[in-house]
Amino acid sequence: MRPSLLFLQKVLLFQLPQAILWCCSSIVIIAIIIFQHVSAGNLPNNETVPAVIVFGDSIVDSGNNNYISTIVKCDFSPYGRDFGIGNNPTGRFSNGLIPSDIIAAKFGVKKLLPPYLDPNLKLEDLLTGISFASGGAGYDPLTSKLMSVISLTEQLNMFKEYINKIKEGVGENRTSMIVSKSIYIVCIGSDDIANTYVQTPFRKIQYDIPSYTDFMASEASIFLQELYELGARRIGVFGVPVIGCVPSQRTIGGGILRACSDSSNQAAILFNSKLSNQMDALQMNFPDARFVYLDSYNPFLDMLQNPTKYGFGEVEKGCCGTGNIEVSILCNRYSLNTCSNDSDYIFWDSYHPTEKAYFVLSSLILDNKIMDFF
């Protein structure tokens, strides 16, 4: 008898590696990166960026899942422990800021990127950018369906609605400028491999790893073409990181020693190669756009292998609870042994990085890629 969708969601929550990591260039940095952004003066040819618009999963979901019916939520303590004045859970899967916020600041737009579904948004909020991301989403439509979250197709539909809203507010000419000049970030794909493929039987019946990563890359290409057709021209896409090395995956698939899951990591490498090739092809076909591939695998691996170089001590478990399995509703105010020194940890829970790790990773990966968007 097939298990219910709710049962599947509860099982998958223990296995769900939706959050994964951002990585870097080859720069060695000091341990703590001060929160600062790339000012417009540092952009090429005095370029300005009117807005930052984000699609993806829990790495860049600033609270959309608060407003939908899903168990993939984090709008409760201890999430948000260091956000703002402290103890302010906003639906961001971390103790504080997340990459969507940090990237918006780096491009000189604003310090916080709000979720599109926030009912309190005003027109001025929309004009400078928004996150459509939903924790638990993937390139594979089944990934979002299994967790009852907002699929990429639905995120794109919300973007269409967004365009109409700002057009009503500021007119067609300014809307066209905002859409064409904005920075677009896509961060998604980890859950497809580590959740949908590895932990459920549904896709294994149809695909082996090479053909499934072909399917993922094809879905990514279709999405990016649709985004281009809607007017986007400055598009950055994160590859899948070292998903086999997040704490939950060490616990689930790493044996008694909690080693990294090599099969998940090899699938990520294979997908990233195909994604990069697809983006090269898109760049050839649409030379008026910029498709920027952002490697989040190799640098993060270096971060895990050489944590002290980046100012971290703990890399195998998260701060919340035991750090081995807690995430989303499993990481809560009743979680025992939650750490007090989260700045020493790369991971906040068993999937998602700490705010400090997000700052380090976002700077490492983006600071030498800014020029590629123009």
UniProtKB/TrEMBL annotation:
Coiled-coil residues: none
Transmembrane segments: 12-35
Gene3D superfamilies: SGNH hydrolase
Entry keywords, A to Z: Membrane, Transmembrane, Transmembrane helix
Listed Pfam families: Lipase_GDSL
Family listed: Belongs to the 'GDSL' lipolytic enzyme family.
PANTHER family: GDSL ESTERASE/LIPASE EXL3 (PTHR45642), GDSL-LIKE LIPASE_ACYLHYDROLASE FAMILY PROTEIN, EXPRESSED (PTHR45642:SF95)
Protein's name according to its UniProt entry: GDSL esterase/lipase EXL3
Source organism of this protein record: Stylosanthes scabra
Lineage: Eukaryota, Viridiplantae, Streptophyta, Embryophyta, Tracheophyta
